[in-house]
Amino acid sequence: MDVTFLLMIAVFVASLFIQWGLQATFARFSRVANSRGLTGAEVARAILDAHGLTHVRVEPVPGALTDHYDPQAKAVRLSEPNYASPSLAALAVAAHEVGHAVQDAQGYAWLRVRANLWPVASIGSNWGPILVLVGLGLGALGLAKLGLYLYLGVAIFQLVTLPVEFDASRRAMEFLRRMGFLTSREVGPARQVLQWAALTYVAALAGSLATILYYASLLGLFGRREE
Length: 227
What we know:
Elements: H1 3-30, H2 40-50, E1 57-61, E2 68-70, E3 75-79, H3 80-84, H4 88-105, H5 109-138, H6 141-178, H7 184-218
Parallel strand pairs: 1-3
Antiparallel strand pairs: 2-3
Helix pairs in contact: 1-7, 2-4, 4-6, 4-7, 5-6, 6-7
């Protein structure tokens, strides 16, 4: 069996473990109320206002773990459970998304780079695998290589995403401690939630790199391609 295919399986298993860890950690601390009794929406609003970002809205969005910051709409969108919940998990996630809003307001370079790379990553994600498979099926290696090069954009986007997400989590912990939202006993649980969430981005990058290596092996870029 191809070594790169085994690598893909290993990355897939690791990704499942990380998703399990995130969901288990999030579920655990979603049942633990923070000492201030503040909801995710209230925490987000307080941190935004403290940074002069009164124009940034805080809105609920359907689903679970669908929390994100929309730089176009200038809105922090929290999943409905986190928006209304006074849990430690909601507090950590809300602060993280506000971290992105502060990055945007301060012109954080990596956030801008990621935004510029998004169209490339979107094209690569949608068309890269298709072109690789079609090219291999038709024996058109040039087309398959084009698909591989397009898919490289996905990995580059995910690589740039890492400093953006880690910095947002760092900012989140700083906000929460400086503004007195966390007691000393709550720092560890909040950090756990953010660390597991960050690992999902590491797993996504590893998965893309493994896929690229697999496509490259199919194209014979590491030696003779087996027919």
